[in-house]
Amino acid sequence: MMNLTEAKKLVGKVCSVSWLDRNGTPVESRSRVHDVTYVAMYGGYLILDRDDVQLDRIISLKLHTDDGSQIELFRDGNAQVATAA
After folding, report:
1. Selection from 6, 8, 60, 66 nearest residue 33 by Cα
2. The model's pTM
3. Whole-angstrom Cα distance, residue 61 to residue 25?
4. Domain range for residue 39?
5. Domain membership flag for residue 8
6. Span 16-29, mean pLDDT?
């Protein structure tokens, strides 16, 4: 799991974030990170252009650099992705 200190270093940067929604379905978004905050009883949140993502639901995060390359900063190998029955 990514912690608040690590996440705060991403404020102002463009990232591709993959996370699990409340059904366990993976969602991916490329967005600028506007803020990182802590919400009581829910934990840390990454505030993006279109979404607010709980830090404990993030399964991967890639930083987009100025030259167009991507650097993978985080990958959760323990993420439980929902599968169709």
Report:
1. 8
2. 0.84
3. 16
4. 4-75
5. yes
6. 94
